[in-house]
From TrEMBL, chain B:
Keywords: Lipoyl
InterPro entries (UniProt xref): Biotin_lipoyl, GCV_H, GCV_H/Fam206, GCV_H_sub, Single_hybrid_motif
UniProt xrefs under NCBIfam families: gcvH, PRK01202.1
Recorded family membership: Belongs to the GcvH family.
Pfam families: GCV_H
One GO BP: protein lipoylation
Protein name listed in UniProt: Unannotated protein
Length: 354, 124
């Protein structure tokens, strides 16, 4: 397919197949098919599965209905973010926790450690599953050709077993692009067949195979954080704008609760904001942010690119809370040139809801 | 169609086409592919001077920033304004319409031949 690959945690992952921009636009206007098998699939099963996930993560897993999903975080005792996760409830006593590729071993190890004393089994099945994501407005049209599953009934952040191309898969209406779409968990031995049949079904609907490069610009436009950029162990959920994900009101103790309860009472000194610029020059990760017309440093860019959809540079940055209000003019040091940007609300891009 | 085998190269992935005392400079297909889709090109001003292996411009893709190193000492006599407005030309035609700058030079430094450059990039 002429793809260019990168090694990611042992999986060889496609960065791009042809053109980052063409792939980006395909997802916004038609559909794209991502191979994101590098993500970690960790299954938690057992009588105390819900109680355990409540203890191990900051969210309230026991409140998730069977067949639904929630965004969550796993924190350390200090309240630092170990990873951000999607938690799917597969059954009364069964959860699927999906971790970022770079963190899956750490997350699996932390979950196993935290499982001591609980009647649960934590199984890292990352090597047994291929994860494909079909994203974009034509996703339903394409997938409906090769499944009998009632796609229209599968709500956003829901998951169900479904035959895709005659292969039994887990089908979730989730994604990381800001578009409608599905993530499909496929047993590794059948993945190639499913990939090929989706591509064939999408042939007349503008479907392109899409790589990790455009996935990054898509998630950036959608204001979605990426671990290692907007989150790390030194960032707490309140700084990252995910205070609501932390359920301090859960009845029982959870890892990080004491620290997070304290942090929730203190206004964060730095917060994650969106930045929008003019022209074509992108503010990129690690560039320093300054008060407009001054040498006083107020923060640092965590992700940035020339937005393919919007045509102007967008970035996410941690700024001192005093400068985090929307419409605040600031400047970014782009390789020695102070360049004007404005603080804006996230996301940069939101699809028209049908 | 430019004859790539007759060009000079640098280890920073520029190519040079020499005509008298004028060097036309672009980046190689290898470099353009590594960068990905190029979305912004910042070229030096006509009349500015260049110093061998000093940065004289930038080539940005969606993912990263590439630097343009001056391959010779000299003076910029022309820049490709078409590329400034259509940076994707560097991807589509790096050895042709995607050329970047023309430099008047007095002396050519040691540059790589096509074979040497191909060996460097592992592409024959």
């Amino acid at each position: 397919m002429g793809a260019s690959f990168t090694d990611f945690g042992g999986w060889e992952m496609p960065v791009r197949y042809t053109s980052d921009l063409a792939e980006h636009h395909a997802v916004r206007t038609a559909a794209g098919l991502f191979d994101i098998s590098h993500m970690g699939e960790i299954f938690v099963e057992g009588k105390q599965a819900a109680v355990f996930v409540d203890y191990a993560l900051v969210g309230a897993a026991s409140e998730i209905a069977i067949g639904r999903a929630k965004y969550s975080l796993i924190c350390n005792e200090q309240g630092g973010i170990i990873d951000d996760l999607i938690v799917y409830r597969l059954g009364q006593n069964a959860f699927l926790i999906v971790a970022n590729a770079s963190n899956k071993d750490v997350v699996a190890a932390a979950l196993e450690k935290r499982a001591e004393g609980f009647d649960v089994e934590v199984k890292d099945e990352s090597d047994s599953w291929v994860l494909l994501a079909i994203q974009g407005p034509n996703s339903v049209k394409i997938l409906s050709q090769i499944t009998s599953a009632p796609l229209a009934d599968l709500k956003y952040y829901a998951i169900s077993e479904a035959p895709i191309a005659q292969v039994n898969c887990l089908l979730a209406r989730t994604g990381y692009t800001g578009e409608d779409g599905f993530e499909i968990y496929i047993p590794v031995e059948s993945a190639e067949k499913v990939f090929n049949e989706i591509m064939a079904a999408g042939h007349d609907h503008g479907l392109l195979p899409t790589g990790l490069a455009c996935r990054d610009t898509l998630r950036l436009e959608a204001g979605m954080p990426l671990y290692g950029h907007e989150m790390n162990l030194d960032i707490n959920p309140y700084q990252a704008g995910f205070g609501k994900v932390v359920r301090l009101d859960k009845p029982d103790d959870f890892v990080g609760k004491a620290a997070l309860a304290k942090l929730s009472q203190m206004p964060p000194t730095k917060v994650l904001v969106g930045l929008a610029g003019e022209g074509k020059r992108a503010a990129r990760a690690d560039y320093e942010v300054f008060v407009e017309g001054s040498d006083s440093s107020i923060g640092v860019v965590t992700s940035g690119a020339l937005s393919p959809t919007l045509g102007f540079p967008v970035a996410m940055a941690y700024l001192s809370a005093d400068f985090a209000e929307a419409d605040t003019p600031i400047s970014v040091d782009i390789r020695g040139a102070r360049t004007p940007f404005t603080v804006v609300k996230l996301p940069f891009y939101q699809r028209a809801k049908s | 169609m430019i004859n790539r085998e007759g060009l000079h190269y640098t280890k920073e992935h520029e190519w040079l086409s020499i005509d008298g005392d004028i060097a036309t400079v672009g980046i190689t297909e290898y470099a353009a592919e590594k960068l990905g889709d190029i979305v912004f090109v910042d070229l030096p001003k006509v009349g500015s001077s260049t110093t061998y292996m000093k940065i004289c411009g930038e080539i940005e893709s969606t993912k990263s920033v590439g630097e343009l190193y001056a391959p010779v000492d000299g003076e910029i006599v022309e820049v490709n304004d078409v590329v400034s407005g259509n940076p994707e030309l560097v991807n589509h035609d790096p050895f042709g319409a995607g050329w970047l700058i023309k430099i008047r030079f007095t002396e050519l430094p040691a540059l790589l031949t096509h074979e040497e450059y191909a060996a460097l990039t592992g592409e024959g």
